[in-house]
Amino acid sequence: MLNRNFVVTNGGYIGGYLTYYLSKFIGKIATSIILLLSLIISTLILTRKSLKEIRDDIKNLSMKLKFKKPILKKPHILTRESEKIYTSAELKEKKSKPKHAFEPIEKFKKIYKTKETLQTDKATSYETSPTQLVMSVASVIEDKTYKIPPLSILHKSKILISTITKKNIKDVVRTLERILSDFKIEAKVSDVTRGPNVTLFSIQLAPGVKVRKILTLENDLCVALGTPDLRILTPIPGKAALGLEVPNKVKEIVTLGDILLSPDINRDRGILTVPIGKDLNGEPVFIDIVEMPHLLIAGATGSGKSSCL
């Protein structure tokens, strides 16, 4: 039977018997190590936290206890000097005198005056009479020496339609017809329209062929033509044919001279028409600012340009 004091100091009968037999067979040092490891493992299982998290929790708790610790003030010890006895006249004089009494210094007054004069001088230096502003604007308006430069100063881009480009178009036509025949789709390329950046291939389908079959071949067509993307038009506007837009390997640069110096340009345009480029047929495309006046106001999308108008 274990001693009562031994049982109390070792955590009850279970802890006492466990400590007694472990220390008897493996020694006190090994028993202490095993019990310490058991305590750590049980703590990890109960809290479901890692050792680092438990260490941080203990550190935070110690910091909170440290800051919550009351600060004891030093006792005020009375001395002979603090026990001075004032007369009634001295007390009245002490009460009448404010705690924070500041006397003006002449140095600060001088600095303040100089700052004030500097501000007034600066304000007067930027003042301009309205007649001067009117005269400057009027002089710009009345200047009639400026002339609009002629269109001859604009440059046209070089035409890149060559034998190499025509050969590439023929190769693409043969590739398209071969792929369609491999998938048992009766169709042929009826027309080719080359634009500055995209070439449109018109595909004429045989009677009874569904458009859905060609739409499912989009990825196969991209791989066969060696292009990252293409667009299928079903149908081409104004035609009874299917359209396939393929990006050009050699792209043309459309300059302002190509549009404004074009022979088939419409001369009856409005004053606020702006050229934006060419379409697939090579015809110039314009937009009329009168129909979209919000473009005359600078601002990002959704900033309220149309609401302002």
TrEMBL record:
Enumerate the UniProt keywords alphabetically: ATP-binding, DNA-binding, Membrane, Nucleotide-binding, Transmembrane, Transmembrane helix
What residue intervals traverse the membrane? Answer: 25-46
- Return the Gene3D superfamilies for the record: 3.30.980.40, P-loop containing nucleotide triphosphate hydrolases
Pfam families named among the record's database cross-references:
FtsK_alpha, FtsK_SpoIIIE
Q: Which GO terms of the molecular function aspect are on file? A: ATP binding; DNA binding
Q: Which residues form the FtsK domain?
A: 258-309
Q: Where is the FtsK alpha domain?
A: 148-248
**Has keyword ATP-binding?**
yes
Cross-referenced PANTHER family? DNA TRANSLOCASE FTSK (PTHR22683:SF41), SPORULATION PROTEIN RELATED (PTHR22683)
Concerning its family, UniProt says: Belongs to the FtsK/SpoIIIE/SftA family.
Task: From the Swiss-Prot or TrEMBL record, give the protein name.
Answer: FtsK domain-containing protein
